[in-house]
Design goal:
The complex is a heterodimer of chains A (about 110) and B (about 120). Chain A is built from no helices and twelve strands. With about 110 residues, chain A is an all-beta fold. In chain B, the strands form two sheets. In chain B, strands 2, 4, 5, 6, 9, 10 and 11 form a seven-stranded mixed beta sheet that branches. A four-stranded antiparallel beta sheet of chain B has the order 1-3-8-7, with no helix packed on it. In chain B, strand 4 and strand 5 form a beta hairpin. The chains are: A mainly beta (about 110), B mainly beta (about 120).
Chain lengths: ~110, ~120
């Protein structure tokens, strides 16, 4: 079946540090890939997405590239801010409802 | 813009009690979903409705029932609550095109349920 594996957290970084959160997937067919973010006390909201191989999704300084050869969709940001502290979820959709990874909690300290 | 609205936001139940979580969306979306979020488990799909008049089981449907009342509303019912159902529940919706569209899910703010 379809599944998503993302790095376990929590991840703690200093402000302006480089962020990578790894995500790999298993899917039949050609999935669309997503990163969602959940700020404290809120629901999830879409951060970025990519719908086909080699697509790069980007938003708010975050980027992720759909790599079919490595079945990966790693999230990166060059310089994190305190306001980026949240839980990040990788997800895929392949002819089924969205399947989520377990989430990675990011804490950014000033 | 209201988006996806869930009620109640908080609820405490005793084992064996029943309750219904309500969800409504104002975006004219076809598909609606109920997820539960537990520490270390991410989000797991309970039930979904690809379109008005249809419902399907997700990954963890046991102990729950759903009703797609109309295009706007999708409710989740716990007939006899158990402590294992203590969780945060999220309702979500997505746009036209059914399950295979690549559109995003829009989430409500969540309902925190505690079963004693």
């Amino acid at each position: 079946g379809n599944s998503v594996t993302q790095m376990e957290g929590p991840v703690t970084l200093s402000e302006e540090a480089f962020l990578t959160i790894n995500c790999t997937y298993t899917a039949t067919g050609y999935p669309s890939l997503f990163w969602y973010v959940q700020y404290p006390g809120e629901g999830l909201q879409l951060l970025l997405k990519a719908t086909k191989a080699d697509d790069k999704g980007s938003n708010k300084g975050f980027e992720a590239t759909y790599r079919k050869e490595t079945t990966s969709f790693h999230l990166e940001k060059g310089s994190v801010q305190v306001s980026d502290s949240a839980v990040y979820f990788c997800a895929l959709r392949a002819n089924t409802p969205l399947v989520f990874g377990k989430g990675t909690r990011l804490s950014v300290i000033a | 813009n209201a988006g996806v609205t869930q009620t109640p936001k908080f609820q405490v139940l005793k084992t064996g009690q029943s309750m219904t979580l309500q969800c409504a969306q104002d975006m004219n979306h076809n598909s609606m979903y109920w997820y539960r979020q537990d520490p270390g488990m991410g989000l797991r799909l309970i039930y979904y409705s690809a379109s008005e008049g249809t419902t399907d089981k997700g990954e963890v449907p046991n102990g729950y029932n759903v009703s797609r009342l109309n295009k706007r509303e999708f409710s989740l019912r716990l007939e006899s609550a158990a402590p294992s159902q203590t969780s945060v529940y999220f309702c979500a919706s997505s746009g036209t095109g059914g399950l295979t569209n690549t559109g995003e899910l829009f989430f409500g703010e969540g309902s925190r349920l505690t079963v004693l």
